[in-house]
Amino acid sequence: MNDIKNGPIFQPGKKHYVLCGDEEGLNTLNPIKQILTNEQMSFEEIHLILECSSEVDRKLEMQKIGTFLYVAAERKKLRKVLSMATKLGYSPEEAQYIIVGKEEKRIFCCRCHVISSVCGESIKRGILNCPACSLKLELSDHYSSIKDAYLGYVAEVK
Amino acid sequence: MKLDNRLQVEINEIVQETATIKRFTLVQTNKSALPAFSPGSHIILFLNGRGGELERRYSLVGDPDRRGNYQIAVKLHEKSSGGSSYLHNKAQIGDILQISFPKNYFPLSFQARHHVFIAAGIGITPFLSMMRECKEQGASFELHYSTKTIDDCAFHSYLKKEYPQHTQFYFTKQENRINTTILLDQYIGTHVYLCGPAGFTSSFSRAAAIIGYPNASIHYEYFSTPTMFKPRSFILELTNGSFLTVPAEKSTLDVLLEAGYPVPHSCKVGHCGTCELSILEGEAEHNDSFLSTKQKESQACFLPCVSRSKTKTLKVDYSYK
Fold first, then answer.
1. What is the pTM of this model?
2. Residue-range definition of the domain harbouring residue A8
3. Which residue ranges does the record assign to the Dimethylamine monooxygenase subunit DmmA-like C-terminal domain (chain A) (predicted)?
4. Cα distance from B141 to chain A (closest Cα, Å)?
5. How large is the ipTM?
6. Domain check: are A14 and A45 in the same one?
């Protein structure tokens, strides 16, 4: 997910802030919460674990122009919130998405179109075999928001 | 009839909408259907003026589904340099005119959750087709329309009939002045569209940015080159070794075209980016609404249709033959 950052960056000058995340995600957002508390700025928290998804959607929907949204959560939860926020019209200037937990990337096989997941060392190496067709794939930086996956190029021409 | 990428049309009807606004219906001289257009589109009208050919841009106010004619609404400007004065005082039914194919630099956003249209005076024109589209698509929208008095308010009865729940009128001489508070309290996902005099558009655009609207959610339309504060003359140096003087009263693009250097161009108001040229030396004074703030700061390129030079000489990469 190209929009996703490794850590939150404070965006000053907004009218209201929304901190949204799972337990680990909200911990990641603590430095932001600290700044907002110290500066006595308006903010609210959305707990992805404690609140049902329709309530989360409703809270995102009711935000006014001038609000800044931070979302920090593990990949699947983050993807769900990002998708809803995008549908509601949140632009990259109005939100930051932070992934927490184990780094994982989805890779789209250019030959058989099966999407598989890679994590840890495989991401660093950038090379893996497609589990469906065994083609050796190179992880590209070409991300598809529709597939939520990176394109895997042919790594070896025999 | 297609003529040098132009269409030849005939004035079919003229309707006096207000004391200073006339609506013209144009049909092709060969009576065939006109090219389709999207909401927010405009055409360029090519008119013969004292100093040569004049180009004037007018929004298409008619129904995009009715391909038999185009409709434009024209305000008579007090300081008309020929365009509106000709159309108001000389143009008659049956006159033949040349127009461009429709162009759209003011489209509706596909991502908006809610559209807020803000018009002053003749700035209402692009919103007529845009609101028609919103209503057809069931999209959420509102219109804020400011004129001096109700008599100056073109399409007043039409708007009251078609969009009674969506339209708010403001008549400045009746102490009902439009202000930027209408931008407050809108939900995220709202896009704002501005059309009117340059001062009106820029004050609403500034207010929207301060409130927190992302740049991509603020849309505006200029029909003439944005007003610049005392433009100065400068020397334009080309990579082929030529030097051209750009006088204060002419655009950089016009100087290049007049000197026989073809530069691809389209909108001529700093909106489309077609005429972009790379800067090799010097700094440009950017007056366009196309390049991002970062691109402007980098001084790597500029748009000669509206932008000029901060330095005495501006060297550009001119590679067209």
1. 0.84
2. 4-99
3. 106-152
4. 15
5. 0.80
6. yes
